[in-house]
Structures are given as C-alpha cells and as structure tokens.
Design brief:
The two termini are 30 Å apart. This protein has a domain of 35 residues. By secondary structure, it is mostly helical. 75% of the residues lie in helices and 0% in strands. The radius of gyration is 15 Å and the shape is elongated. The longest helix is centred in the middle third of the chain and has 23 residues. It contains 2 helices and no strands.
Length: 51
C-alpha cells in the first residue's frame, strides 16, 4: 500500500521525460494526496501496547 505513492512519483518523472508536463503534474498531485491520506491513516492508528 505504501509503495503506491512512490510508483506514482516514478510515473510522474517518466511523464516529464516523455514531455507530458500537464499529465505529470496531475499524477504528482494525485500521488502527493495519496501520500497524505496514508500518513493520516498511519498517524491516527492506535498503538496496541500492553504494558
């Protein structure tokens, strides 16, 4: 699951190299939003610690 934003960033870089700037910006934005959503899910997950 965590690898999805990084695949998106790789795709955005590949699109830049192919000369498709607008598509690259859209893919990068979607990857960044996905990264923020995954961080929110991770940061608010309760810890299961039995002390």
């Amino acid at each position: 699951m965590m690898s999805l934003p990084f695949f998106g960033i790789f795709l955005a870089l590949a699109l830049v190299m192919a000369g498709r700037r607008t598509a690259s910006i859209v893919v990068f934005g979607a990857s960044f939003v996905m990264l923020l959503v995954l961080f929110k899910l991770h940061a608010t997950d309760p810890l299961n610690i039995a002390l």
